[in-house]
């Protein structure tokens, strides 16, 4: 039952909001079972975590709103923005140089930001060393 709650069908149903009653039954089930003190503490910590973060586990709702669920989008962005530019053969970067290159790369890869960047430069001018 705990496995289903944490990673299986029951957890998905609870997170999506389709089976909130099973959450109550699962908590009651876990409290009435005999476990060692160590396991009981871990179970209580897991139940507390889920109680405190239920508002962040509405995967069904967020999926319907077209929010990305999972880390795939972030990992793909890291590969596109960072790995393809900074990890080529023979490249060595210091932190400041890498930060500048990545800033420019994100501007180039996001068309709306690229035009916003140039509009700001046109509006406020290009900073010089004496103004920094």
Defining key terms:
single chain, 132 residues, mainly alpha, 2 domains, disordered N terminus
Describe the structure.
This protein has 132 residues and is mainly alpha-helical. Helices cover 70% and strands 0% of the residues. The N terminus is likely disordered.
Write the layout of secondary structure elements.
Elements: H1 2-6, H2 9-16, H3 20-32, H4 37-53, H5 59-64, H6 72-86, H7 95-109, H8 111-124
Helix pairs in contact: 2-3, 6-7, 7-8
Short description:
With 132 residues, the chain is mostly helical.
The average pLDDT score comes to 76
Straight-line distance between termini: 61 Å
**From the helix content, strand content and strand pairing, which structural class follows?**
mainly alpha
Give the overall form.
elongated
Number of strands: 0
Strand fraction equals under 5%
Radius of gyration: 24 Å
Please tally the helical runs, counting DSSP H or I stretches of 4 or more residues: 8
SSE order, as H and E?
HHHHHHHH
Helix content: over 70%
Q: Sketch the major β-sheet.
A: none
